[in-house]
Amino acid sequence: MSMTQPQWRGNEAELIQSVCGGAREAFYELIRPYERMIYATAMSVVKNSADAEEVAQEAVLKALSNLAGFRAESKFSTWLIQITYNEAKMKLRKAHAHLYESIDDQQQSEEGDFWPRDFADWQPIPSELLEQNEIRQALQDAINSLGRIYREVLVLRDVEQLSIKETTIILGVSEATVKTRLHRARLLLRDSLAPGFDGCWIKGLTYRKVRPW
Amino acid sequence: MGTIEISCVEVWREISNYLDGEVSPEARERMEAHFKVCAHCTAVLDGMRNVVGLVGDGRVFQMPDGFSKRLQERIQKLP
User: Fold this and answer.
1) How many CB pairs (< 8 A) connect A and B?
2) ipTM score here?
3) Architecture of domain A127-201
């Protein structure tokens, strides 16, 4: 089968119209810019690559069959990511609910303040480090070590760079909740990466641990 | 100078919102005054900024090899 698709041109609204008008070949062109987002969203919930891919495929097919019902009240990307997120949660429910954190994960206390644990003096980390597999893996592991509610919000906001408003729509929580969870997620991630950074992120640099108490 | 001093704890509480530009101009001013004199809070801010920059780079969640091809095939196989 040939992967060379006819080149569909036009903006998103036109592509949506084409697909709804029967040109299903245009559908991949429509979702192509969001593939990585779809995958990352699925990963943030199910945490493993094979499951995330399955979720991504199911979500995309669902988006195709529901496309006629898409109303441009929200952005297409938000709608697509929301479908993916719901599909991923459904997968957790169906397959592994008893093994994973509780689906709604609300037992994890969100009350009270949360403080940083590490006061290492960070140097800017060059992004070229991400060329290294082990560095990317370390980051993924650190993200995966977060509780699900923190991981989801971090992936939507900081990996996918969605706005706070878009994040509230997808997760179905308030703006204040998004902000609180993101705050904790970032602090937790920073804390969990600091020791690695201290010892092995960049060889040859020394970091001063500063603990105020 | 009329900037009201704030504690480390108050800075930490808002540090993520500060990075996102989600604090009031007054709070921003107070936090910036605090960062100038507090190495610990600056370390927390720098670390958080680093982490946010790294995860936002786009290379962290790389799709598995063949992901796009399999997705296209799945769409094409639909009846």
Assistant:
1) 133
2) 0.90
3) Orthogonal Bundle (1.10)
